[in-house]
């Protein structure tokens, strides 16, 4: 394992492609898949969520709007978003992912595993230019989308894209993020080697978080991680977000 990534260091090169399935191979699916999802928000709820985001994001709101435009145009055209997602991007995705920024220390090195269309990695990158973020994505179509989005958003100095599997990646980071990648037991086995000493995993989870914690208890103990579910409410007008935080304790 290579040396840990510090907040002040960033590997040379914005993009690295290596391995991983090609577009259309098994495992590639659009963001928004899965079961037991909440009911779709109304147009009024989505508009309210966008307004809340504008207030929360301040000077970064305009750049986030550009990212959402990329998602609803190129992201849809490239098949990276499910057909229901454009109508609920702010309420179900952007605000949800932005909650992670509250848990990441200033200047941290961050790797977003299975970054897909950039949720949550690019959301965090837009809001936190102080971070050094790696978007790790093994699938070619998605990694190409991420490269183009990073360039269009002007984030090349703080965000890079690596096309690689988590198991093959040779660096450690202060923070590992993940959303809709795998159940906790599997996720921990994949990403634990990426967590630097004193680092943490931040996984966006839903109602199953407590069941997943019970399932993963043995793996967490063996890997020297101490986990807890956190509830983050960025506004009284939107639903709270559940984040599973696993800290390296040994």
Give me the Rg, rounded.
17 Å
Helix content: 25-40%
Sequence stretches where pLDDT stays below 50 over 5 or more residues: 11-15, 17-29, 32-37
Backbone structural class: alpha/beta
CATH level-1 class: Alpha Beta
Shape: globular
Mean pLDDT: 86
The counted number of beta strands is 8
- Name of the CATH architecture: 3-Layer(aba) Sandwich
Question: Can you tell me the number of structural domains?
Answer: 1
Please tally the helical runs, counting DSSP H or I stretches of 4 or more residues. Answer: 7
**Could you give the distance between the termini?**
16 Å
Order of strands side by side in the largest beta sheet?
A: 1-4-3-2-5-6-8-7
CATH evolutionary superfamily: Vaccinia Virus protein VP39
Percent of residues in beta strands? 15-25%
List SSEs in N-to-C order: EHHHEHEHEEHEHEE
Could you say what the CATH topology is called? Rossmann fold
Largest sheet: 8 strands, mixed
Indicate the topology.
Blueprint: E1 15-17, H1 43-57, H2 61-77, H3 89-98, E2 109-113, H4 121-127, E3 132-136, H5 140-153, E4 159-163, E5 173-179, H6 184-191, E6 195-205, H7 209-222, E7 225-232, E8 241-248
Parallel strand pairs: 1-4, 2-3, 2-5, 3-4, 5-6
Antiparallel strand pairs: 6-8, 7-8
Helix pairs in contact: 1-3, 2-4, 6-7
